[in-house]
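Below is a complete specimen:
___
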Amino acid sequence: MDNIDEIIEKLENGEIKLHQLENIMESANKAADIRRRFIEKQSNTKLENIGSYSIDMTETSKKNIENAIGTIQVPVGVVGPLKIYTEDETIETYVPMATTEGALLASVNRGCSAIRKADNCHVSITNNQMTRAPAIKTKSVEAAKKLKNWINDNFERIKQEAETTTSHGKLLKIDPIAIVGRYVYPRFVYYTGDSMGMNMVTIATEKALSIIEEENDISVIALSGNLCVDKKPSAINMIEGRGKSLIAEITIPKDVVEKTLKTTTEAMVEVNYVKNLLGSAISGSYGYNAHFANMVAAVFLACGQDPAHVVEGSIGITSAENDDGDLYFSITLPDLPVATVGGGTRLETAVESLNIMDCKGSGKVERFASIIAGIVLAGELSLVGALAAGHLARAHKQLGR
């Protein structure tokens, strides 16, 4: 169909649905343009900026979004270079971050400077797993207990069935298997390689449930029963980990603390204790940190990650200790679901951002996760330092925010 006005008229009278445009038009880009014009007419507004973009909607409309009308724009900057050491390599790179929060990149950049001057930031990945936990209904608590035992006894059969759906995923364990009344919540834990893995583990768990249902008198109420725990802060993810679990640590010499962070080791240790530990404890927070979410969100937006997983990346612990006058500082990031293949990483802008760090494609996910951990450490160092020095409000005023 070529007559745009005719198509919009048919959208208005319901002859054509918005989601059908990709099937009608010669391209997904054209479909997005017509859909946007329809929304402009319906809302009596102009969407000139939403309609100005460089990405190709052909694959995007298939894999990343429905009813596309264009894109939004978030400013992207860089910080660094960030220099960190992992178990496999020394990484020195600039890092792209997308945000609308003024002063954030300036602050993180200061943290990167402190890290470079100390030159001993080490990042370790302590766990690598993705989870899915269905909710299963049994006849009674006795039946629930029998189901739990059956799952434990038949793990190898379940594992074999689950892994028929993927060439990359591996079912590591089913633990814990929680029982609430007559409901059972088995937490399937997978290794997912370079993919973030949510779709992978969902499909694999659905397949695994088929063999469980065949041999047990049960009803699967929901493929996700929230013991996963996906896109929510939780104690189990804090303890067991989800996605990549990382620790970044550094010892900053006393003179670097004083000259670069403009404060003292003693003051930073006290601020961290009072704010990040005691303050978080009294509030019941799972985020024993200053602002993990700031750095995680900014890198996620730049690099095509699922922004809903920022809530998981916000949990974790910042620690600070006086090491004979020097500052020992670390962040524990237990729940960071990231990917370098699939999902939003195929978007043109995400590809470019990942390429800045040499993090696009297979075999790069651990490098990418380690860089994020380093950036979180940099951001925590800078903010805790600013609070210790009394500079936080002044920095925002000077930068006009």
